[in-house]
Specification:
By secondary structure, the protein is an alpha/beta fold. The protein has one domain: TIM Barrel, CATH 3.20.20.70. It contains ten helices and eight strands. It has an eight-stranded parallel β-barrel, surrounded by seven helices. α2 packs parallel to α3 and α6 runs parallel beside α8. The termini are close together.
């Protein structure tokens, strides 16, 4: 059965919008764990638009499940990861002008720098996942540079506006998951998944974990973090 890691970035987004001390992503993470989350995800961006260094350091001390640090493959972030030692690093692309991560990390373009980052982290005992699009050659390259995990970008499927586009993009996800499984990679999936789109993954048991943030935080605004996490956990258990 797949697990659920909860991304609490957008709790910090609310805090930073007013430049005050609340709501606290650390408190949200603890509530998510109490509700049954299998892990906590935070993206420490170069521009620090939501999660701050202090958040990550506190989370490292208090998270009881596992802490997943999303980050760009830069020397600054590698240094932070080596210092904090999260349970998993997920390498993601990053552009300052984007609202959120827009797609997977292109390993054709960034193969050498990503391979160096993977080696540096994994040589120090930190397993590495790479957030990539559902393209076979990207999966193969992730395997070639010794990533332990791939996180399949599901945003194109979740944002599809026609049944044809939805079916086409989901078929590509299925093929990518099957290939990654064949290559003995651990498989996570995330981006854009909500309480409706999660149902499409029924029967795709090769996925080890779903990483979900915005939809859970949005739901939590209305019903509370614990209820929002429990509702998503139930849907994942039914897949």
């Amino acid at each position: 059965m797949a697990g659920l890691s909860v991304n609490v970035d957008h709790v910090a987004t609310l805090r930073e919008a007013r430049e005050i001390s609340y709501p606290d992503p650390v408190a949200a993470a603890l509530l998510a764990e109490l509700a049954g989350a299998d892990g906590i995800v935070v993206h420490l961006r170069k521009d620090r638009r939501h999660i701050q260094d202090r958040d990550v350091r506190i989370l490292r001390k208090v998270v009881q499940t596992k802490l997943i640090l999303e980050m760009a493959p830069t020397s600054e972030m590698v240094g932070i990861a080596l210092d904090i030692k999260p349970d998993l690093v997920t390498l993601v692309p990053e552009k300052r002008e984007e609202l959120t991560t827009e797609g997977g990390l292109d390993l054709f373009v960034h193969k050498n720098s990503v391979a160096e980052t993977v080696g540096s982290l994994q040589d120090n005992g930190i397993p590495v996942s790479i957030f990539i699009d559902s393209e076979p050659e990207q999966i193969k390259l992730a395997h070639k540079i010794n990533a332990s995990t791939v996180e399949i970008h599901t945003g194109t499927f979740c944002d599809a506006t026609t049944p044809q586009k939805r079916n086409q993009t989901f078929d590509k996800i299925v093929d990518a998951v099957k290939l990654a499984y064949k290559l003995k990679l651990k498989i996570n999936a995330g981006h854009g998944i909500c309480y409706n789109t999660i149902k499409a993954f029924n029967g795709l048991h090769e996925i080890d974990e779903f990483s979900i943030g915005h939809s859970i935080v949005s739901r939590a605004v209305l019903v509370g973090m614990e209820k929002a996490v429990k509702e998503m956990s139930v849907l994942i258990k039914e897949l």
